[in-house]
């Protein structure tokens, strides 16, 4: 029998998976658009854009691992919960705002 808390966690996990999948699909579409476009005059810029998108895809994959192991939504540095509002904007984020600022 699933408790109310268990149902809430399942819904939250389902929503997080949905958001991560949306982010993944968006980034893959960006990569396809770059690949299908004519070569950009600034090749370095195009390579930097591709590398940045690939880094975000790696972060999305890492968030999926955290979701599976139960650490999703917890700051990787201070171990406090990451605010839901932050996860809604960046569902793959690893750190709370304070720790992210200190890391930058």
Give the gist of this structure.
The chain is mainly α. It contains four helices and no strands.
Question: At CATH's second level, what is the architecture?
Answer: Up-down Bundle
Number of helices: 4
Number of domain units? 1
Taking pLDDT < 50 over at least 5 consecutive residues as the criterion, the unreliable ranges are 1-6
Helix content bin: over 70%
Radius of gyration: 17 Å
Strand composition percent: under 5%
Secondary-structure element string: HHHH
Question: What's the name of the CATH homologous superfamily?
Answer: DksA, coiled-coil domain
* Derived structural class: mainly alpha
Distance linking N and C termini: 45 Å
